[in-house]
Write a structure and sequence with these properties.
The protein is mainly α. It is built from six helices and no strands. The longest helix is centred in the middle third of the chain and has 22 residues, at 63-84. The N and C termini lie far apart (50 Å).
């Protein structure tokens, strides 16, 4: 069976994050397929799974991975700070739709597109609030 579309997305995301060029990619594919092909599109699902596993192991050892983890954890800190100020569903979980809408409306940026510096800045601002800040001083 050929590789899946989900595998394809993961594979190319890892290739890009690791900065692997076309020649290196072809050599990796050739190695994984035991010399059968240089084209990743011709790999089986099992071969692609093995290649993805190896790429993920390499990625985890990079500085880029560490920075991504820091940024992701900081993003969650902002989401939970907003939840604690009133952007929660009745069950207490963050209201993601409302949080993203608020960030776009007041900070003019999606939380997922914010830099680490921006995330930390907004965490500091939100933690100082007594209640949720809106233009009308009422919660949305």
């Amino acid at each position: 069976m050929k590789r899946t579309q989900a595998q394809n997305k993961i594979f190319y995301r890892l290739i890009n994050k690791l900065g692997i060029d076309a020649d290196t990619k072809a050599a990796m594919v050739l190695s994984i397929s035991n010399g059968r092909t240089e084209h990743s599109s011709e790999l089986t699902a099992e071969e692609m799974a093995l290649l993805i596993s190896r790429l993920q192991q390499n990625y985890i050892q990079t500085e880029s991975y560490r920075q991504d983890r820091i940024q992701n954890n900081t993003r969650w800190r902002l989401i939970y700070a907003l939840r604690d100020k009133g952007m929660a569903k009745p069950d207490g979980t963050p209201d993601y739709e409302r949080i993203h809408r608020y960030a776009n409306q007041y900070w003019h940026k999606n939380i997922n597109d914010m830099t680490l510096r921006e995330l930390n800045k907004y965490i500091g601002i939100v933690k100082k609030w007594k209640t949720l800040k809106t233009k009308n001083n009422a919660t949305n």
